[in-house]
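Task: complex structure prediction.
Instruction: return structure tokens for all chains below.
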Amino acid sequence: MTSLGPHAGFILASYGAVALILGGLVLTILRDHAAQKRALAALEERGAGRRPIKDSAP
Amino acid sequence: MASLIDLANPTRFMRLSRLLLPWMAGLAALLFLIGFYLAWFVAPADYQQGETIRIMFVHVPAAWLAMMLYTMMALSALGTLVWRHPLADVAQKAAAPIGACFALICLLTGAFWGKPMWGTYWVWDARLTSVLVLLLIYLGIIALWRTLDDPGRAGRAVAILTLVGFVNVPIIKFSVDWWNTLHQPASVFRTGGPTIHPSMLWPLLILAIAFTLLALSLHLVAMRAEIMRRRVRTLTILEAERLDRLALAGAAA
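Output:
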């Protein structure tokens, strides 16, 4: 590849669109994952899933 | 040996996916490097289409993945409706935004390729229109997930819509054979073998595997996030009930 020729704008726009869309998707998914992990850790730290002692007796 | 039923356990899935993800993402990155090097510096310009052939290396994998992810969603929809598989609607929900992005990439790169080669960004021919319909179905599915709060009810409603929408996938695939379209017919997966020269076919296949590994890695991360979201929802409800009970006990004392 030496030059992209007369249609360089179309080629670069295509690769730009791919980078933009996939970059946005990766960021969105990673941020969502991190947010859910934080929320779950905070709830577990507060003991949200634990039953009261009298409820857990057989 | 772990069976599919064993993998259906969310705890086991979380453990296995955490082990798999670095390998899948690393392999995707390596294949992207090799594939883009071959696509940009080794593959020659096409004798008719010139340098615009470089668009093929992202357009074609995006088209394949838009259809593959929808097919995965249709299989998950069966898992939700027929087998009530615990991870089926999680898999389905996680795949929709990824599939939508690849459908959008396919349409945009197709338009940028179409303008210099066909003289237009868009025509209402069967292939282009059916891919646009695929994107709209993806968006409808994402909207439906957001409309219903209860994941169980939303999963069943989305599963029905997904299965109805699956009729569009073979239409996309065979549109270029069934109708007279501006879009060219299949040139890789066809009886008689690919019609692309190996110098262009290899980078295309390597990039297709790289994009697939990226999509599957993102799918695993999105599934992990969805499993945690449901756990957060359950724990929030449990915590609210516990606080209610404490408040009632306090008022009675």
